[in-house]
Amino acid sequence: MATTNEGSEGTARRGRPRSFDRDAALRAATMEFWDRGFEAVSIADLTRAMGVKAPSLYAAFGDKKTLFEEAIESYLREFGGFIDRALEEEPTARRAVARMLHEAASWQTLPGYPRGCMLISAATNCTPQSNEIAQGLVERRNEGIAAVERRIAADIEAGILPGDTDAHALAVYCTVVLHGMAQQARDGVDRATLETVAHTAMAAWPAETGDIPG
């Protein structure tokens, strides 16, 4: 009898298995936050989109802020990874940024998905209570600038770009273009136009003067 009771108690402590697909629920939450932003999406909106009850949402994901942070990570894995791939795979900073901007034109206008970039649009017009969310996205965007700046600085050091190139200013410029493209995509600008913007933006880059790897 003791063994049976212990097993029953253990089962009770473990609770029932989840009756929903956590990955699908997270994806639905990501789409809501991406489309409407953190502040505008309520728990009722999330439970409806995710197909779960509020207690299940809290048990699986924690509170709304915690769910949003996980949604951001999910977004970056599925939709934002093209930036890191370009910076890692291309032989020069210029080619990496050109690829990044051209791929942004595609990713930010995917049919059937919210337009633009979640890192830019998901925490606009936040109340003071959500300042932590907004500041977290600022930090992530600044990390992106720093990553581009490091690639530019490496090319300056290698003699690929002129020695008087301002790595920080050029990295900020590229990010301004990227963010502007995201907003234009959200406003309905088509992919072809954004591709042209990406091409035009690269005309501002200093000419590569040294030996190009690969």
Structure keywords:
214 residues, TetR_C, mainly alpha, disordered N terminus, Tetracycline Repressor, domain 2
List the topology elements.
Elements: H1 2-14, H2 22-36, H3 43-50, H4 54-61, H5 64-89, H6 93-107, H7 118-121, H8 131-157, H9 167-186, H10 191-201
Helix pairs in contact: 2-3, 2-5, 5-6, 5-8, 6-9, 6-10, 8-9, 9-10
Could you explain the architecture of this structure?
This is TetR/AcrR family transcriptional regulator. InterPro entries: Homeodomain-like_sf, HTH_TetR, Tet_transcr_reg_TetR-rel_C_sf, TetR_C. GO terms for molecular function: DNA binding. Keywords: DNA-binding, Transcription, Transcription regulation. By secondary structure, the protein is mostly helical. It has one domain: Orthogonal Bundle (Tetracycline Repressor, domain 2), CATH 1.10.357. The protein has ten helices and no strands.
